Amino acid sequence: MKRKVIQIMCCWLAATGFAPAQKAEALMEKAVAAYEKSGGISAHFVANIRGESQHVSESMEGTIRMKGDQFVLFTPDVHTWYDGTTQWTYVVRTEEVNITRPSGEELQFTNPMTLLRTWKKGFKAAHTGESTTGEGKMADDVSLSARGNQDVETVELQLDRATALPVRMTVTMKNKLRSVIRISRMQTGLNPPDGTFTFPAADYPNAEIVDLRE
Fold first, then answer.
1. What's the predicted TM-score (pTM) here?
2. DSSP state string for 142-186
3. Is there a contact between 145 and 119 (Cβ–Cβ < 8 Å)?
4. How far separated are the first and last CA of the chain, in Å rounded?
5. Cα gap 65→42, rounded to integer Å
6. Which of 6, 11, 92, 214 lies 20 to 30 Å (CA to CA) from residue 183?
7. Which of 98, 57, 62 is nearest to 77 (CA)?
8. CA–CA dist 71, 142 (Å, integer)
9. pLDDT tens per residue, the chain (214 residues)?
10. Can you tell me the distance from the alpha carbon of 19 to that of 75, in angstroms, rounded to the nearest whole number?
């Protein structure tokens, strides 16, 4: 009798815990592999940011180009370049460029797509079901929960089953600030040169440089 109870418990754990975790990890590994093989990605996105305690409610559109750890991110208000070590953030309104060396957590907030390569370091994954993308394609849903105390608490991913890449990301911060990012018009195989990801000073002759690196 005791053996049967143990067997039932093992089956229940497999159905409710271990199996979703294993499937989620396999999906994340597939997403990472797809990104590594992409040869660089360019995409358009729409982000909706909400935070009741912060009295924040805003939406924005932008574009992003990525290759490896590097990215360049354009929104109407801010332009950001990251070359894998140094980040340049240009504020359109003030024409000010802040130069920093962001931490891993800071990068996750600026560009949640960086989680594709680093999620294992601070998150555990669970498969939460299947869904349909805005374009009517089948997708798998994966939830990433932070291990320990981090600024990013959870990340919910909708992974396009055909490409294995994210088409929607919902990021919830520890302070409950929530960002929903929908990705569209994605192109791969662009292989942009490394210079794409450094601040082009000649294009911003009036910019005030503020070096915040320590």
1. 0.85
2. EEEEESSS-SEEEEEEEEETTT-SEEEEEEEETT--EEEEEEEEE
3. no
4. 65
5. 4
6. 92
7. 62
8. 23
9. 545 444 444 443 444 444 567 899 999 999 999 999 999 999 999 999 998 888 889 999 999 999 999 999 999 999 999 999 999 999 999 999 999 999 888 888 888 888 888 899 889 999 999 999 988 999 999 999 999 888 899 999 999 999 999 999 999 998 999 999 999 889 999 899 999 999 999 999 999 999 999 7
10. 39
Give CA 184 to chain center in angstroms: 14
Q: Which two tokens stand for residue 119?
A: 């999620």
Q: Which residue has the tokens 């569209």?
A: 184
What tokens appear for 211 in the block? 């070096």
